[in-house]
Amino acid sequence: MLFFFLQSLVLSHRFAYTLKKAADEAKQGLRVKTEFLSTMSHEIRTPLNVVIGMAHLLLRSTPRKDQEKNLNVLLFSANNLLSIVNDILDYNKIEAGKINFEMVPMDIASVALHITGGLSSKAVEKNIALNTEIDERITRKIIGDPTRTSQVIYNLVQNAIKFTEQGSVLLSVQVEKITDEHITLTIRIADTGIGIEQEKQQLIFDRFTQADSSTSRSYGGTGLGLAITKRILELQHVELNLQSEPGKGSVFYFTQTFSLSNEPVNTEEDLHKNVEPEMQLHDVPILVVEDNPFNIMVAQSLLERSGAIVEVANNGEEALEKMQPGKYRLVLMDLNMPIMDGFEATRRLRARGFTLPVIALTASLPAEVEKDVQSAGLTDIVVKPFNPDELFRVLLKHLKP
After folding, report:
1. Domain range holding 167?
2. DSSP character for 198?
3. Does residue 258 sit in the same domain as residue 112?
4. Are residues 256 and 137 in the same domain?
5. Which residue from 329, 220, 247, 321 is spatially nearest to 284, judged by alpha carbons?
């Protein structure tokens, strides 16, 4: 009996050790994969920042009609590549359980119109109609994550356009129920596209999968968009539903309840207003700290076109040498630089008593660097590749009159 007891004890220890070792190896494998994808994302985003930035600059320089068309194609393709990189990284983050949701006021009508506006050129190119319907009872902003909500709707609308050869795509936001504190919305994306057979409807939500192997050859894509969309909604306890018939089209929809904020939604005039950033930074002295000469060229050109007075430092140490009280109103600080990185440079600036806004410029995702950014004393983050409008929004937000 003692022999059998000791044998079972030894076996249980061996089993526990083997199980722990396997678990450790799995965690290590996931960590290595996450680090690899994060590094690859950073390396791809850095040159993409130059491509997208230069395309925006050229579009703002009153190009000829034929040049404008070519630049829009270039910009669309670069943004498409960026979305593929983001999809791969996002799915990896979801697998690792590292996805968080913001809870801030957002204008759902503005989100919907920006998405259809951004994708309208793709619909025009395919000669299909892209329409938006917003329930008029939505008069206040809702509380949610504008980035993730935009991602979900964008993926579904983009998908609908991709698989529709003739007819139309409709994005509708309808109120199901409304009280003083909460609103329940159904967001529907209906298309007149190729449709999906009943037996294959669940298959399309699997990662790296499309309904038919020929689909990826005909329409492209990683097969991650719907898997990410479904998972983002599931993490908020929301179900993504599908109704589809081959040859007649598909309807993707979900119903979600949001808290209501006290802020009113934007007026229709506000939603369609396109504010040019020209001269918004007139005579504002800004220090750009960046080691990549092409990124310097993009940032400097955009800022100077808006009236800013720009000086450049190639690393954190050089930035510290240039800093003097009252000399600059804002610093754009790259985080990854030789000699001295942006984190250390900002820590030393704060230690010297400088309180001006220091905005992080990074090709890493905010969630990956957020803690280090806060602990170093950086004011905000602008992610490369950046849209000029987003850059100016952040700068103007932090520039004191």
Report:
1. 104-271
2. G
3. yes
4. yes
5. 329
